[in-house]
Amino acid sequence: MTLWMWILFLFLIFQRVIELAIARRNEKWMKAQGGIEEGSDHYKWFVITHSLFFVFLLGEAFIRQLNDLPVNQFLLAVFLLSQLFRMWCIASLGKFWNTKIIILPGAELVSKGPYRFIKHPNYLIVLIELIVIPLLFHTYITAIVFPVLHLLLLKIRIPEEEKALARLQ
């Protein structure tokens, strides 16, 4: 793998670790305020899928012996824009952002930032990432398999989240 691929890969790992720390902090705060976790049965599959994404990304890149590949500027721009959008989602939800479904009885449904326009913008961003990142790495099998797995998981996750959010109203 090229140097820029390693830098991007390490950036992604660092970013995910930071996000998990934020999610844990928010989870503790929400539960201390009376927050209730819902639909946790499927959560392990998100963890497994997103962990395997990085394993497959690296594995496919090594198997294909991807060296001296140029950076696709368009895909890089899409990736960078998706990261800005991701930060907007997290900032808009504030202490309510989490990787789990946790509802806080009595809390208002967040309807600012990207949530004014789309109900689950973070899931769209993750889908874009699961396509764009492997394309940047020229790992085409990963670019097909993981978006499909993500969409299958969302068929479970979004209805669970909608049920939980309906209890807030």
From TrEMBL:
GO MF annotation, one: protein C-terminal S-isoprenylcysteine carboxyl O-methyltransferase activity
Major localization class: membrane
One GO process term, biological-process aspect: methylation
UniProtKB keywords: Membrane, Methyltransferase, Transferase, Transmembrane, Transmembrane helix
Recorded superkingdom: Bacteria
Keyword presence, Lipoprotein: no
Localization: Membrane
Any single Gene Ontology cellular-component annotation: membrane
Membrane topology: Multi-pass membrane protein
Membrane-spanning parts: 43-62, 74-94, 123-153
Keyword Membrane found: yes
Protein name per the record: Methyltransferase
Organism: Sediminibacillus albus
